[in-house]
Amino acid sequence: MHETVHGKMANVEQTRLVVVDSIINEADQIRLFRVRSVGDDVLEKYEPGAHVDVVTPSGFTRQYSLCGDPACEDSYLFAVKREVGSRGGSSSLHEFLSVGSELRIGRPRNIFRLHDAAEFHLLIAAGIGITPLLSMAYRLASVNSPFVIHYFVRSLDQAAFAKVLSSPPFWGHVVFHVGVSRDAVAKELDDAFSSIAAGTHVYTCGPNGFMDKVVAAGERRLPPDSIHLERFQASPTNTSEERSDAGFTVKIASSGQTVRVAEGTTIVRALSEIGVEIETSCEEGICGTCIVGVLGGDIEHRDQCLSKTEKARNDAICCCVSRASSAEIVLDL
């Protein structure tokens, strides 16, 4: 998983203690960490595509995909790429963790799920974006569901899990795209989509620019809601969009209590001022932790975790970044 760019401190009450069981140099600048529970605690089960908050030795929280086989219930696996210019997140995990070190992690969360109704699954990754897709591949292989992985890497030395993906049960399901120039990526993606059939669902993770090209290629052949993205870095704001930061009122349906969300503040912060706490993580509109149901009012969606169809329903809001476009919005709280 990509390291997020924020430096949010962890809420210890929302984490659990685990111990590092093994560390593997998976690829150039990528380490694979296996963690197990401490004492008699049991790790929660998770679905493919899930991620966890990890409190790094530097004290900051980063999000990483669980990339192991979801059927393995005694440990979690996550891979960390040491990012250039890291402010202490990925670099502290590389430098200060050893076998036997203790960590605090959050519970698994998932807004990047496999769709059971899909007739075929097309997984497309670039670089460290392979991590959430690997857990999906484990599940799909275990239930004999048809799938193929297209994996774009600069070189095989930089390809995490290259050996795993070249062995059973994945052999024959993986196409490596090695050293493809940026200008040639769109053509390679068009070729990957050329033979897909109706009923296919697409799952992609990687740099924002890469995923934009995946979406563009996919939407020429599939309904938009068949294409699913995992973002761990907010994409640049489209300044051509009409946006208003004007204040509005939030009403809590269960109590009738109201609070003003002023210009320059967020729904999360306004609710906190009246004692209503909304769980957050990324605070950038990419993780989905703070999504709340909406019973009335209009939404100006600014997140990157709800799908186009979910946004069109106007019945849920990402409280850390999105706002109301009406004078009042009623939350299902």
UniProtKB/TrEMBL annotation:
Query: Has keyword Lyase?
Result: no
Q: Which cofactor does it need?
A: FMN
Q: Where is the 2Fe-2S ferredoxin-type domain?
A: 248-333
Cite the CDD domains for this sequence.
fer2, PDR_like
Q: Which Gene3D superfamilies match?
A: 3.10.20.30, Nucleotide-binding domain of ferredoxin-NADP reductase (FNR) module, Translation factors
The UniProt entry, under InterPro entries, shows: 2Fe-2S_ferredoxin-like_sf, 2Fe-2S_ferredoxin-type, 2Fe2S_fd_BS, Beta-grasp_dom_sf, DmmA-like_N, FAD-bd_FR_type, FNR_nucleotide-bd, MRET
Coiled-coil annotation reads: none
Name any one GO molecular function: oxidoreductase activity
User: Which Pfam families does this UniProt record tie to the protein?
Assistant: DmmA-like_N, Fer2
Tell me the ranges covered by the FAD-binding FR-type domain, including all copies: 13-115
Q: Which UniProt keywords apply?
A: 2Fe-2S, Flavoprotein, FMN, Iron, Iron-sulfur, Metal-binding, Oxidoreductase
- Protein name as annotated: Ferredoxin
Kindly list the organism's lineage: Bacteria, Pseudomonadati, Pseudomonadota, Betaproteobacteria, Burkholderiales
